[in-house]
Backbone:
């Protein structure tokens, strides 16, 4: 196992690439469902489908992109050409929030869905190659955590800033034009950050080049799919991704219909993301002292506890609710850091076959992440529809029934608590961490990881 320590001149620009990724994940994740139901008058069940169906394609697209990325690495020695193509995602990002003025309801949902399909394809070109970088490098268990710690801090800061900036730029009582202005501004930031990230990947590859695969070893999706540790880790992460995307999509609704003030959306986002930024370095230390698996399980338990406190609703008082949201943010930091630094551990344990399949591993991983991004808001939209939530257009102030308000409340709290409990059960089946933490995997360990 390599003892190489990565230089800051490579770490910082690599991490900066996550700013663009954070904007793409955050703004649609938090605001797109709300944009559809409360700005474009799309019924909740239709809005949920408009976000779900485009992401179904990611199950196929991301692994396919992963194979292309692996082929690019084998042929050119790097993955950066595909990342550069992915920067075009900025155009799709702007298009999602630039809906023609004569479109409302289902037709508006179709427009957004088409833009989302294009955006997901382009984003995967960047994301899959970017996240394969730790597995491409000649670094060890703890240095992977350090690398992803830098990345995690930056993406969490970008999520925080994007989550606060987006509603501020859109303004109070925004219309479609205000959302378009917001998308143009954040899209420019996204593009600049992604280009810097490509520079960071190039510097990391020069600072710690990985070991080339031995002759005769072939990679591909089957190597990743046969890897038992990877399957378990991905299943748990998929459940976490569904949960976290549900929570993010639900925040504007919880602020407006449970707390009674839509302006509190920014407060909730800040209370969620600020602790995540501050505690990421602490989670890096936890991983070094106790291991990634233990840290992740502890964070998931904290998330469940915080969700149950939020279920008390406005009656609990705003300070307690903000503290509970902060608990979710602390847990979120670990649930981003630990799994992403475990994936290259799994790839390393798979030996040469894993080394040449890093793109396939990350393609499947990001497919799970994208699926979570689609299923989370869809689950919440089902909760809204079941409670009788009524959609509206910009400027309207619809009074929701008690059943709709209850759906807003418990869909944001109890449903995530149940989902995270399932994630804990799945995560406990992952057993590679103890071996990865103490020594380089032996041949027997590699065989066990692939069973």
Residues:
């Amino acid at each position: 196992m390599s003892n190489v320590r990565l230089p800051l001149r490579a770490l910082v620009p690599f991490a900066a690439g996550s700013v663009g990724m954070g904007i793409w994940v955050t703004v649609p994740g938090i605001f797109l469902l709300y944009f559809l139901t409360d700005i474009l008058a799309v019924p909740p069940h239709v809005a949920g489908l408009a976000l779900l169906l485009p992401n179904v394609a990611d199950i196929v697209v991301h692994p396919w992109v992963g194979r292309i990325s692996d082929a690019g690495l084998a042929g050119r020695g790097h993955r950066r050409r595909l990342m550069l193509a992915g920067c075009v995602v900025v155009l799709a990002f702007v298009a999602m929030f630039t809906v023609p003025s004569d479109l409302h309801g289902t037709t508006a949902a179709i427009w957004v869905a088409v833009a989302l399909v294009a955006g997901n394809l382009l984003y995967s070109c960047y994301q899959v190659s970017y996240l394969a970088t730790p597995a491409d490098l000649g670094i060890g268990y703890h240095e992977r955590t350090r690398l992803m710690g830098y990345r995690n801090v930056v993406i969490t800061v970008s999520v925080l800033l994007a989550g606060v900036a987006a509603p501020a730029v859109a303004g109070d009582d925004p219309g479609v034009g205000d959302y378009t202005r917001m998308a143009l501004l954040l899209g420019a930031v996204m593009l600049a950050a992604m280009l810097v990230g490509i520079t960071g990947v190039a510097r990391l590859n020069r600072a710690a080049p990985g070991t080339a695969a031995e002759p005769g070893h072939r990679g591909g999706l089957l190597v990743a799919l046969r890897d038992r540790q990877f399957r378990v880790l991905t299943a748990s992460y998929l459940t976490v991704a569904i949960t976290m995307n549900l929570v993010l999509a639900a925040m504007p609704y919880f602020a407006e219909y449970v707390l009674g003030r839509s302006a509190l959306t920014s407060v909730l986002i800040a209370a969620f993301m600020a602790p995540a930024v501050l505690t990421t370095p602490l989670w890096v230390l936890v991983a070094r002292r106790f291991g990634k698996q233990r840290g992740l399980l502890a964070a998931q338990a904290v998330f469940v506890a915080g969700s149950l406190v939020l279920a008390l609703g406005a009656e609990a008082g705003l300070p307690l609710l903000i503290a509970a949201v902060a608990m979710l943010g602390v847990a979120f930091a670990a649930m981003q850091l630990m799994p992403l630094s475990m994936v290259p551990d799994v790839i390393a344990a798979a030996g040469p076959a894993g080394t040449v399949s890093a793109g396939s591993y990350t393609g499947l991983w990001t497919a799970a992440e994208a699926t979570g991004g689609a299923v989370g808001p869809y689950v919440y939209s089902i909760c809204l529809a079941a409670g009788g939530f009524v959609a509206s257009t910009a400027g309207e102030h619809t009074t929701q029934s008690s059943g709709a308000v209850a759906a807003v409340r418990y869909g944001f709290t109890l449903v995530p608590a149940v989902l995270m409990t399932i994630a804990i059960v799945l995560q406990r089946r992952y057993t590679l961490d103890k071996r990865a933490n103490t020594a380089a995997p032996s041949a027997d360990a590699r065989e066990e990881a692939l069973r």
